[in-house]
Design goal:
heterodimer; A: about 475 residues; Beta-Lactamase; Heat Shock Protein 90; 3 domains; 5-stranded mixed beta sheet; 9 helices; B: about 220 residues; alpha/beta; Rossmann fold; 4-stranded antiparallel beta sheet; 12 strands; about 40% helix; elongated
Chain lengths: ~475, ~220
Amino acid sequence: MRLPRIFRTTPFRLTLLFLALFAAAASAFLAYIYVATAGEATRRTDREITREMLSLTSVYDRAGVDAVNQSLIERAASERPFLYLLMGRDGKRISGSIEESPVERFHGQPAWTTFQVSDVQSGRPVRRPARGLQERLAGGETLFVGADVGEDQAYVVKVVRALWGAGALVIVLGLAGGVLVSRNVSRSMAGLTEVVEAVRNGDLGARAPVRGARDEFDELAAGVNEMLDRLERSMAGHRHAGDAIAHDLRSPLTRLRARLEAAFLDVEAGRGDPRQALAQALDDTDGVLKTFAAVLAIARLQAAGAALDGAAFDAAELAADIAELYEPLCEDKGLDFKSELAAGLLVRANREFLAQALANILDNAVKYTPAGGAIMLRARRRSSGEVELSVTDTGPGVPEGERERVVERFVRLENSRNEPGAGLGLSLVAAVAAAHAGRLELDEGPGKVGEMGPGLRVALVLPRA
Amino acid sequence: MRILIIEDDVEAADAMERGLVEAGCECVRASDGLAGLDAARQGPFDVLIVDRMMPRMDGVTLVESLRREGDATPVLFLSALGEVGDRVEGLKAGGDDYLVKPYAFAELIARVEALARRRETGSVHTLLRVGELEMDLIARTVHRQGKEIDLQPREFQLLEFLMRHAGQSVTRTMLLEKVWEYHFDPQTNVIDVHVSRLRSKIDKGFDRPMLQTVRGAGYRLDA
């Protein structure tokens, strides 16, 4: 049988546990009170009975059984009477306030007993606990002295009953409190549970409510939401990449297929030399593979998030290295290449990826800057402590409205369609920046100078190591 | 040249063998890691071409076993895993070079030749000589026909690599990897520009060019 949900919640179970502990402690407490009060009352009664018995036996020893009898009559009229029974040697009742002894088996030794006395209080019969002592007198007569344990005991019973009642009340209130707390916690959790359920069913847009209580549930909800944001972005990125790859690989693959088919038909028909078609096909294949490699690299960087491990090294040295690699190329293209590299720019990064990012930025600058233009590679530390690697060119630049878009995968501006490349260069740079908890900034270059410009400044900004 | 191809993809291995045989190599094939290890022990081979991911025993384990047994045959790893970490792992295991799939056949041949050659000229020279060209690795000077050629440090490294692989095709990727130590693929012809600068220094003014462009492959320095 399944319990209702509320009874299976953790807070409710904890409440039950605490109630059980409380009940155990309360029982021990009650037992102690009982022993300390009711036990004390019994002991006091016993002491009184013993004293009375002593006084009566001394009367007997002094003046005999008749004097005892007389004494019993007098004493029975006192304020708080003992119960007496005097029996002869034959065990027959001589006198007393009760008809027969509650002691069932008497062998001559002093014998204690606990029994009940009936009484009438305010018109209602009550039975009260009583204690009694029976002894054999020196002459062979038997004397029984008893007393009810009295008001004390009744008072203790009342206290104990009250305590039991209070205990029951505490348990009831505790259970109610447990249910309330459970419901409250359940409500807090319900939002999260719903979100998890929704995400499991494929709705990545679901978000947990943050109630603003700034408690641990809010923290958890905020954490879950952040995780989902990131997951959603990553999924959207993958979906976009998937579409883009399909789009961008399909055309070269289609071209490749057509070329191979044409070459095949030519060879079948014995026409011409297929070599050129094959060479073209190889080129096409290389292009597709390059695109593929770039897409994979980006995907891996994005999957790594900002958690790419890297060693600390001097970014200026790397920049100098890359500058040395690109300088002759610029010179050949009639571009004025300069570099301005500050010393000791320690960054913690993946050297290979950083080198590739810089190379991509320079590739772009070289591709788009017309002969006679200039390219400047700069490495410096910003006042914020961040390390900035930037490339400024005097090419046509990127219109402000387009700057965000050119970083996206496969986006190429209209006038650059006839340049080689798949439009992945800056996307890779952006992915490298993100994977190092840095960013990519695009700005206008030095401005328009004659036919040139306004140019583009691409900066890769990395956090201080 | 005797080459052992350890590759589980039969079609890829077929193509590789055809190309290598055409290039004058003798090929032995194994189609999984364990068979490959056995074949390698039968040796000797000039170069082992080892795929990284194979049934029964992966390439890295295979090469580690061989190295433990004292077999120093040059190993070229082939892998679809192109991450820097994967490359480092392969080289650490005892691989001598690492080629990421898919590759151009010219690239494979060039690397196999480079590995086989490295074995022949394993000893340390302080003086490299290719035809009329002389390179002093200590003084860091280069002479052709006794005339000193002034080179930038990187040009010197580039020429050193070409001289060590004289008579063999070396690809642009190999140059970027071995001389600049980068493993990415630039979109522009940066390497070509460096090579043509070097060419103008060592060939200009001499009757015969030594640094050849090999179509579809890369460059070759001839004696």
